[in-house]
Specification:
This protein has about 280 residues and is an alpha+beta fold. Helix content is about 50%, strand content about 10%. It contains five helices and eight strands; from the N terminus they run H-H-H-E-E-H-H-E-E-E-E-E-E. Strands 3-8-4-5-6-7 form a six-stranded antiparallel β-sheet. A hairpin with a 2-residue loop joins strand 5 and strand 6. Helix 3 crosses helix 4. The protein is rod-shaped and about 125 Å long.
């Protein structure tokens, strides 16, 4: 025997034995559990289910979603309202622009009409002034150069329309029948005339075709003195070949003529507007 046989060991056998016993107990328990589960059989097995809890929408979240939807709807309404307002504004602008253009057009038309009326009034005033001036000059010349034994006035020939016959009578009768008709530039009847249109129509009753305008009528025939007028003679104002007005002498120191738009066709004394000259066609 070794001299060390009776020396006690430094290990702890009891503790190792305890651990072994513990392990044996645990293993035995597990095996027993498995055996019991196996004896129970698969019929007693229950399925394992798993429940997943979904998050619950709280009332605060619902309120936020509703508010967001309402805000979106309000934005859409605001955009629609703005679009309607923009369309209305554009339509109003177009209407205003059209109204402005129409007002400008009317103003321009009115301005032109006023200018035309003013020009016409000035022309008529000038014509009356020229006639008055010519009458005054002729009266002065007649008074200064007339002789005491002339026995007649240069402004009032003695011929009378009461003893007119033939073609002259037809011309005079037609002219007198038109007294009171309107004066219209370019008028040739039957109810409105200009000066040369009236004389042309009067001579047509006698089968004579006069030129249409006063300038040509003032040279159509033989020039005669105002002291030696006969019914049916053509009176003219201005120079021969460039006359601006004509009329028909009807005898008795009177004439018939389509004067202007204010007086129309009138029967007047030669002293009313002394002519420049006369031509005899008959």
């Amino acid at each position: 025997m070794s001299h060390t046989a009776h020396i006690p060991s430094h290990r702890k056998p009891r503790q190792r034995a305890s651990k072994s016993a513990l392990r044996a107990g645990v293993a035995g328990g597990v095996l027993s559990t498995i055996a019991v589960a196996g004896a129970a059989g698969p019929a007693q097995a229950e399925p394992v289910t798993q429940t997943i809890e979904m998050p619950t929408i709280t009332s605060g979240f619902s309120t936020a979603v509703a508010a967001s939807a309402q805000a979106t709807q309000q934005v859409a309404l605001d955009l629609e309202t703005q679009a309607d307002e923009d369309a209305a504004a554009e339509k109003a602008a177009k209407t205003a622009k059209k109204a402005h253009a129409e007002a400008v057009r009317k103003a321009e038309a009115k301005k032109k009409a006023e200018a035309a009326a003013k020009a016409k009034a000035e022309a008529e005033a000038k014509e009356r002034a020229e006639r008055a001036s010519r009458t005054s000059e002729r009266t002065t010349l007649s008074a200064s150069s007339g002789s005491s034994d002339s026995g007649s006035s240069a402004s009032a020939p003695s011929s009378s329309s009461s003893n007119v016959s033939g073609s002259a009578a037809s011309i005079v009768a037609f002219a007198k029948a038109q007294v009171g008709d309107a004066y219209v530039p370019g008028g040739t009847g039957p109810n409105s005339w200009d000066c040369s249109g009236l004389t042309q129509a009067a001579y047509r009753t006698a089968g004579i075709d006069l030129p249409r305008v006063s300038q040509s009528q003032s040279t159509f025939g033989t020039q005669v003195s105002l002291d030696n007028l006969q019914p049916g003679d053509i009176l003219y104002w201005g120079s021969a070949g460039s006359a601006y007005h004509v009329a028909i002498y009807i005898g008795g120191g009177e004439f018939v003529g389509a004067q202007n738009s204010n007086t129309g066709t009138v029967q007047r004394s030669l002293d009313y507007d002394r002519p420049t000259g006369a031509v005899r066609v008959l």
